[in-house]
Amino acid sequence: MVNKMRYNVSQLLKDHVGATRHYQLQADISDLDPALTPLTDLAGTVDLIRTNDGILVRADMHTSVELNCSRCLTQFALPVRFRIDEEFHPTIDITTGARLPQPDDADAATQIDIHHILDLSEIVRQDLTLALPLVPLCRTACKGLCPDCGKNWNDGACDCEQEELDPRFAVLKQLLDDTNIQNN
What is this structure's pTM? Predict the structure, then answer.
C-alpha cells in the first residue's frame, strides 16, 4: 500500500516563501499505532506552505476510533477531530545537495528526509493520541460497574445488597447525590 501521508516537497522547497500546495487526504491508519483501533480511514485536508526554514503543515483531520469506557469497560466508537500545525525542516539543501545542520532539539518526526519526502505519519500518530480523552466515557452519564458483582449499571440495577452508610458520611453522600443530579 502506498503511504498517502508522504509528500515529495522538492518542488515546493525550490518555490518562493508563501507558496502553497493543497491536498485531500484519505488514508488507512490501521497500522499507525498498535494501541489505536481506528474504525474509519483518516480523512481531511493538508496544506503545505513554504517558509523561510522549511515547510509549514496545516491539516484538519478526522477519523473514528474504538475505545473502552473507563467506567463500564464497554467498547464504543469515538469520532475524533484534530488539527496539525507543524513546521518541517529539510535535512539536505535542495540546490547544492549538502547536508543542512540540524538544531540540537530537532525532532526526527519533523525532518524532511534526504529524498525531500515529508512524512506526516508520526505527527498524525502523536496528534491523534493527544486528541483522545484521558478518561474515555461511552456517555457522560455512564453509571459504571457494580463493585461487588460487576454488573453494568447502565443495563439496570443489580441484586447486590446496598451497605449501610456511616451516618458521619451522610453529608458527603448528599453532596455527591446533588452533583450527580446536576450532571444528568
Answer: 0.79
